[in-house]
Structures are given as structure tokens and as C-alpha cells.
Design brief:
The chain has helices at residues 5-8, 11-38, 42-88, 91-96, 108-129, 147-164, 169-183, 198-225, 240-243, 252-257, 290-300, 313-340, 344-368; strands at residues 132-138, 141-146, 186-188, 195-197, 229-232, 249-251, 276-278, 304-306, 309-311. The chain has 379 residues and is α+β, with helices and mostly antiparallel strands.
């Protein structure tokens, strides 16, 4: 695959779950706005709350069902279309080595593997939706709340603050939207306490299955071609411990010992966008020579300066991701504040903060010579 192609493969799934996140946050704001305007006493609110929470549960179930239906279609497309495209690329190597190439549609073993991984991935996404919530900060400590508890706590707190006169509606709305966008809708493992933004968890589930399938194809192809050697792909901005081994040729044992294949932090591990492709000596041609790899590594490790601070290629990529996360949260907050009917001054302030971050993102990306990825900011 072209550098960076693997990274964008699970994006449609991430978009589905980002939309689920937005719908849930909007639902909370809508209910807060409705009740803050109509409830005139805490007794009225207590009587109304059970009905409100009941409606919320069904609404969220409908949102989740829609997200999973969308994701099913995207998963089918990824595993069928993208894997077929990559599988067919091996045909030329079979021809060069005089081996018989089995067409994708006729490869029953591969079809069975794809079906199994698709089923596994869809099951992972269902599991993710069963453990949704938000992470809040209470007394200086982070606390994970499932969706029902978060709805209840947030709506209770908002209505009580407004009824008691402790805070006005705009202040409460700003606080709630800030809390939700800072946390993001999360997949929460309540046993371990681990949590991850839901769109990140969904993308990871897809990439895990995709990587498993591509590894099976690559190793089966290598076996068919009678080789034990693989070329690891190269991409710009690789993290330092991956940059030292990317782009070179290794045997299977070296992939494990040098590149960390099979480990969480190594080749094909978490957030790794490298692949390893069958390499037949005398038939395959390396993408980059050792000299070219050394030159590219030196260029990537030469820092560039932006506003008085220096960044290597990897550090620049990480900073760009941080800015994208900030911009996405700011856009979410603007959307929620508009929905909640916040005062004009507060909305102007939120939009000004977004413009400042957006301008920094544009300037930083240009200075570092890396493409902007505005699709990561879309909500």
C-alpha cells in the first residue's frame, strides 16, 4: 500500500462512531435545555426524570443500532474490496517465480478467514457499544460513568443548579458541553478502569482484524513462493522505535526479534501502520535502498522550527494530531452551544478559540511540510 493508506482504511468506521457520539451529546443538551425551561421545582423534576431517562435509553439504543448498521456495511467493504485489491497485487510475483496464482474468488481458505474476522470485528463493535460512558473529574480524580448514570447526574446537576439560583443557564450549558467534549463518548472497561474514545476504539477493532487478515495473506503468499523474507513498508513520521527498522528486508525470525511482530508495541501492533510483504530474492525489487532509507531518516530527524520550538518529523505529526483533537472538540462544543441556545457572547468566544487553533494548525502544517488532514476534524 502507499504510505498512509493503511491509516485511513478504518476512517469510515471512526466517522460512524463519532456521529454516534455527537448524537448522544446533542440529546443530553436538548433534554437539559427543555427541562431547564419547563421545570419549576425540584419535585417536578424528580417526577419528570424517570420518564426522561426512559426516553433517553430508547433514543440511545436507536442511535447505536443505526451506527452498527452503518459499520456493518463499511466492514464488509473494507474486508472484501480492500483486501481483494491487495491480494491481487501479489499476482505479478507469482508469475515471475512461475507459481500458480489462485484468484481471490476461488480462494476458499481466504474467504473463510475473511468471514471469521468480519464476524469477530462486528462482535467487537457490539461489545464497545455495550460499555459506553463519559469520564468526569471529581475531587481531582477521574471517574467513569456509564451512559445512564451520566444522563442522570448531568441533568440532575443542571436543573438543580439553575433552580437553586447558584448558576445561570449559560454557565451550566458551558460547563456541561466542556465536560462532554473534553471526555468524549468513551468505551469503558469497568474491570480494569481503562477507557478510550469510542471512535478510537472502533478504528482499533477494525485495524486489528484487517492486520490479522493481511498477515495471513502475506505469510501464505511467502510460503507459496518458497521465501522466508519480507520487506517492511516505509512511511513518513514513523515513531522513533519503528523508524529504525522500517523499509528494510528481514526473515520471519528477524521480524519478531527486530521489528517486534506479535507484540503490542511492535510491527502490526497498536497504532502501527506498517506492513510486511513477501520478498523473493532475484524477483522482487526493494522499494528503497539502504542509502535512500538512511537519507530519508536523516531528513526526518532534522528538526524544523515553528514559533520558537523545534520538531522532528515524528514530533510534528504528533503535534498535528493534538491540534486536530483540540479543533474537533472545539467544533463539537460550538455545535452543542448553538443547540442549547447559549448567549451570543459565549458563542462568539467559542468560535474565536476555534479560529485561533485552526490558524495555528494551517501555519504549523505548512511550516513542517506535512499535509493538512481536515477530515479528522469533521463532526
Amino acid at each position: 500500500m502507499e504510505p498512509g493508506r493503511i491509516e485511513i482504511i478504518p476512517q469510515p468506521i471512526g466517522d460512524d462512531f463519532a456521529e454516534l457520539q455527537q448524537r448522544i451529546m446533542e440529546d443530553i443538551v436538548r433534554r437539559m435545555k427543555l427541562n431547564a425551561g419547563e421545570i419549576t421545582s425540584s419535585a417536578d423534576w424528580q417526577m419528570n426524570r424517570l420518564q426522561q431517562l426512559g426516553v433517553s435509553k430508547q433514543t440511545v439504543k436507536d442511535y447505536i443500532k443505526a451506527a452498527l448498521n452503518l459499520s456493518d456495511k463499511e466492514i464488509d467493504k473494507i474486508y472484501r474490496d480492500v483486501i481483494q485489491e491487495e491480494y491481487v497485487r501479489n499476482a505479478d510475483l507469482y508469475t515471475k517465480t512461475g507459481k500458480s496464482f489462485l484468484p481471490f474468488a476461488e480462494n476458499k481458505e481466504l474467504q473463510a478467514a475473511i468471514d471469521a474476522v468480519m464476524k469477530q470485528t462486528k462482535g467487537e463493535l457490539v461489545n464497545i457499544t455495550r460499555s459506553l460512558g463519559f469520564v468526569t473529574q471529581e475531587s481531582g480524580k477521574l471517574k467513569a460513568l456509564d451512559l445512564t448514570a451520566y444522563y442522570q447526574r448531568t441533568l440532575d446537576s443542571a436543573v438543580n443548579d439553575i433552580l437553586s439560583g447558584s448558576f445561570d443557564y449559560n454557565t451550566v450549558l458551558r460547563r456541561v458541553t466542556s465536560e462532554m467534549t473534553n471526555s468524549g463518548l468513551r468505551y469503558i472497561d469497568y474491570d480494569s478502569g481503562y477507557s478510550n474514545r469510542v471512535e478510537v476504539a472502533a478504528r482499533r477493532a477494525v485495524m486489528t482484524g484487517f492486520n490479522q487478515t493481511m498477515s495471513q495473506i502475506n505469510e501464505k503468499t511467502a510460503k507459496d513462493l518458497g521465501t522466508d523474507h519480507y520487506e517492511v513498508t516505509w512511511h513518513a513520521g514513523a515513531r522513533p522505535d519503528h523508524a529504525v527498522w522500517q523499509g528494510r528486508v528481514y526473515n520471519k525470525k528477524q521480524l519478531i526479534e527486530i521489528c517486534g511482530l506479535g507484540s503490542v508495541s511492535g510491527l502490526k501492533g497498536a497504532n502501527c501502520y506498517h506492513d510486511y510483504l513477501p520478498f523473493v530474492k532475484g524477483a522482487s525489487v526493494r522499494t528503497y535502498t539502504d542509502e535512500q532509507l538512511d537519507q530519508m531518516a536523516a531528513a526526518e530527524n532534522t528538526p524544523k522550527k515553528y514559533q520558537g520550538k523545534e520538531y522532528t518529523a515524528y514530533e510534528a505529526k504528533q503535534r498535528q494530531r493534538q491540534l486536530e483533537t483540540t479543533m474537533r472538540a472545539q467544533k463539537q462544543q460550538i455545535s452543542l452551544l448553538e443547540l442549547g441556545g447559549v448567549a451570543d457572547d459565549d458563542l462568539i468566544d467559542a468560535k474565536s478559540k476555534y479560529r485561533v487553533t485552526s490558524q495555528e494548525y494551517t501555519g504549523f502544517s505548512r511550516t513542517m511540510g506535512i499535509p493538512q488532514q481536515r477530515e479528522r476534524v469533521r463532526i
